[in-house]
Amino acid sequence: MTAAATAQLAFDGSGIDGSLFTSVTGFARDTKWLNTPMEVWTNLGLGVFAVLMVMGWWNARRRGTQAMTVALAAPVAVVTAFAVAEVVKKIVAEARPCRSMPHAYLVDACPAPSDYAFPSGHSTVAAATVAALFLLDRRLSAIAAVFAVVEGFSRVYVGAHYPHDVLGSALLGLPVAYLTSLALRRWATPLVAALNRGALRPVLTAEPPAVGQRAQ
User: Fold this and answer.
1) Cα 42 to Cα 134: distance, rounded to the nearest angstrom
2) 119 cis-preceded (ω within 30 degrees of 0)
3) pLDDT given for residue 13 in this prediction
4) 3-state secondary structure of 175
5) pLDDT value of residue 190
6) Which helix (H) or strand (E) holds 9?
7) Coiled-coil stretches, from where to where (predicted)?
8) Which of 5, 25, 27, 121 matches a 20 to 30 Å C-alpha distance to 34?
9) Which of 29, 4, 21, 37 shows the shortest CA–CA distance to 165?
């Protein structure tokens, strides 16, 4: 199937909130000084969520086996949510705004026709991080939530997604990541406890080994 045929078969989501999309992209047109920072942030900003998960792992080293299990589960939960989002994206097959509304002001380059819009992968990662950290550290989760809002807005600002793409990402990413973390906390804690007695102990806890373990 050619790229043109793929674009024709894709769902047109502009009728849902196209006017809101053009309001945001119109704001982008009026704030061209902000275009480059937002374009840089929309991609590189995902690194902030990785940093927050690393911080969660570091703090969990002082909080016991269950907390460490949740910390290790966080990236797994985020990847799981992203994978589910990619499946949904292929099923819905919504054309990107740059193809449905080509006359809108767009900061970001238009991706390939087969790179669909709903849900937003970037926003899914952001929302999933919020949920994954919620079971571990509410403060880090709150910080992630602030950055997730900025990330979601940036996806619309640069013209990559409609607002409903971002909202759909949150509705998908939050429960998938939360339930994945919850399940792993229950099922993987014994495994982490076992690993904590071996060579990986320095990675899993900040506590010094017991006297008997030192002798070994």
Assistant:
1) 23
2) yes
3) 86
4) helix
5) 85
6) helix 3-9
7) none
8) 121
9) 21
Which of 160, 23, 164, 25 shows the shortest CA–CA distance to 97? 160
CB 187 within 8 Å of CB 144 = no
- pLDDT score at 215: 40
Q: What is the pLDDT of residue 41?
A: 95
The secondary element (H helix, E strand) that includes residue 2 is none
Q: How far is CA 100 from the centre of its chain?
A: 25
Residues 154 and 21: their CA atoms lie apart, in Å, by: 12
**pTM of the complete model:** 0.87
Distance CA 185, CA 94 (A): 35
Tokens of 16: 């849902």
Q: What angle do CA 169, 175, 76 make, to 5 degrees?
A: 90
pLDDT along the chain (216 residues), means of 10: 49 90 95 95 94 92 87 95 96 93 91 92 97 95 97 96 97 97 90 72 61 46
Three-point CA angle 42, 19, 24, nearest 5°: 30
Q: Which residues 6+ apart lie within 8 Å of 145 measured at CB?
A: 130
What pLDDT shows up at residue 1?
A: 41
Rounded (5°) CA angle 211-212-216: 115
Residue 101 half-sphere exposure, CB side, CA atoms within 13 Å? 25
Burial class (CB in 10 A: 0-12, 13-18, 19+), 164: buried
Residue pair 62/55 in contact by the 8 Å Cβ criterion = no
